[in-house]
Structures are given as structure tokens and as C-alpha cells.
Amino acid sequence: MAVEKFTDTYRELEPLYRLHYAEMVARLEEAGILYSPYNPRLEEYGKASDGGWLLTFVLRSDGAACGYINVYITNDMHNNDLIAQEDTLFVVKEHRTGVGKKLVKFGIDELKSRGVKRLNVSAKTDLRVAKLWKRMGFKEAATQMTYQF
User: Fold this and answer.
1) pTM for the whole structure
2) I need a surface site. Which of 24, 29, 78, 149 has the fewest CB within 10 A?
């Protein structure tokens, strides 16, 4: 596991990003929420990565990427605390054997070392992951709702 630049890893991780997006879209469509096709704003991701406020944590097995977390870091608008917001978190099915927990723990440790006060995450692709996060010490703080236009 390592922190790597989005701009350096996107080509390698793109198949995983597409797989993750497809899994998320399929799960949300079951709930009646429709998403547009995969079309990331790579220039904006690149700016955020180069600016240091987007961190990409990469999980590897035998050198090949098998999971990742993208996290934005910013200051809370209400109190100026340094906070982090998970953008995406994914581990390929073949590696969902507990390494996701290790990846999250690695990310938490790195964010803490950078002075981050809170990390916000949301389960979209697989709602069961929220149970894992609770066991890791995350607290339920909100319910996310979507209104489809």
C-alpha cells in the first residue's frame, strides 16, 4: 500500500475505476437511481492531485493494483478543521478478503499523520461495507438521499 499521485496511476487504475463505477451504477439502478456513463473529469482530478488535496491510496498484490481509495483533503468551511472526504474506495472482488480493511487503516493512519481531524465516507457500491466501517470506529453521522431529476 502506498500514497501515489492520481496523475501517475490513472492509466493503470482506469480498468478498476470503470469496474467500480459499473458496480456502483448497477446497485443504484436497482434502487431506481440512474447515472450517466463513466466520463471522469480527469483535468480536475489532475489539478487536485497536483495541488496535494487529492490523495490516492493504492493497494497492490504482486505489484499489480487491486484496490484504491481517492480522498479529498480540505478545510471545514465552518470551523477550519482539516478534514477528508472519500471520493472512491474500491477493492476488486478477488481480493475482498480483508485487505480492504487494511487499506482503510493505512489511509486513516496517513490522514491522521497529516493532521486531518475527520474522514467522511459513504457506502454506495456495497452497503454492507458500512458494517465494516462501524467495527473500525466510524460513526453514523448522516443519511445521504438522492433526488432524481
Assistant:
1) 0.92
2) 149
